[in-house]
Amino acid sequence: MAKLISVLVVGFFALITRAATPLDPASIPLPSIPDRTFNITEFGAVGDGKTLNTDAIKKAIDACRVAGGGRVVIPAGDFATGPFQFVSNMNLHLERGATLRPVADAKHYRVSRVELYPGKEDDSFENCIQASNCHDISITGEGTIDGQGEYWWTNWDVRRPTPENPAKTHRPHLIVLDGCMRVLVRDVTLLNSPMFHLIPRRCRDVRIEGIKIKAPPTSHNTDGIDPSGWNIYIANCMIDCGDDVVVFKPDYAGPNGEPAVENALVENITAWHGHGISIGGQTRGGLRNVVIRNCTFNGTTSGIRLKANVGNGGLVEDVLFENLTMKNVREAIVFTSHYQKPIKTPTTAPAVEASTQYIPRWRNIVVRNVTAEGSKLAGRMWGLPNAPIEDVAFENVRIEAETPLDITFANGVTVKNSSVPISAGMPLIPATRMPETQPAAR
């Protein structure tokens, strides 16, 4: 039987669960870009929407590299291109009225075997725009990068393999910045990515500010922003997509054993459609000290979404969700250690051996000043019998939903000054626990 927990004050609240500490955006250095300009039209690019400008863009980038860095400018016009790579000390600047269109034709994209995340390899097309192990890079301006994803969504839907595509070749991502330092993405508009829109993966000192991302809600796997790394600031963005709006993917631990994600602040995000702001589904590299605040969700499938499964889990701790407004969000709050597992309740899931590697663990999570109106589901907090969700605090939370929050296998859930429908008929405090240490992901 569900019960309404309303205005319940739990003593020693501050001592039970510690909140994450917000990152100071001013502590993140901006990229160092020399004051040189390389306009792609000076290298033969034509903005007529038909001419393929890959060679001209690559020539401009190479000239930028030889000179020691600078600004590669996409002027007003409609520029088709194949995939290309960044170099260090480079700013890709799209002027107002500029549209860069990665070509919608698979023959221009190499296919190679790649590791999608630890333990998972598959064939994948190369990404539209890639930066690998670069430093001091940026993408700026009031122009647009349009991934023309409809071509890819129709022909390469990995969820629906066909006899013609048995290998499940993965679609290109629009922008991947892998292993980079001092990264800035500001003001640009990203449209219709074949798959994920923007992936700053294993990057340090990242600022993403004032960008717009849009793809149809029916477009599979068109995540907005998928960051991992250290010192990450994402702010003042509008995102409307077919999958996670922002999702931290802490898959690979840091080079010195630090968590895959540490010290991040996400604020002032407006989301339509999509799957909310998430952590997971691969968390084996670990995550620590992340703050998500001052965000609005309009009609997303989820608001707060933490997800992992046995075999791809790790420790996620010290997370603060604060000042969030949800309207007509289907499921307000999701914490699950059973991601992509077809179960109706955690009590029906098979037991997990204590020796199993990469167990999802969630602890020290604060949900504060959150309202949800018009939700179908308040949500679920589904841990494991011997790896419970630990120390979650709800403070000033108001959820209006047709069905209650289902809490199963969780320890140390506290509620203060809140109105949350909760179904707590399942075990809340398990008898056994997983070991505190887990192998580090490589």
Structural summary, described in words:
This protein has two domains: 1-20 and 244-442, Pectate Lyase C-like, CATH 2.160.20.10; 31-188, Pectate Lyase C-like (3 Solenoid), CATH 2.160.20.10. It is 5% helix and 48% strand. It has helices at residues 13-16, 54-67, 150-155, and strands spanning 3-6, 37-39, 48-52, 70-74, 77-81, 84-85, 90-94, 98-102, 111-117, 120-125, 129-132, 135-141, 144-146, 175-178, 181-186, 189-191, 198-201, 203-209, 212-214, 229-241, 246-248, 261-273, 277-279, 287-298, 302-307, 315-327, 331-336, 361-382, 389-408, 410-416, 419-423. It has a 25-stranded mixed β-sheet that branches. The chain has a four-stranded parallel β-sheet with strand order 6-11-14-17. A two-stranded antiparallel sheet has the order 9-10. The radius of gyration is 22 Å and the shape is elongated. Mean pLDDT is 89; it is low at 1-15 and 425-442.
Strand share of the residues? over 45%
| Assigned CATH class of the largest domain | Mainly Beta
Give the structural class.
mainly beta
Overall form: elongated
Q: In the CATH hierarchy, what is the superfamily of the largest domain?
A: Single-stranded right-handed beta-helix, Pectin lyase-like
Helix content: under 10%
As for the CATH topology of the largest domain, it is Pectate Lyase C-like
Number of domains: 2
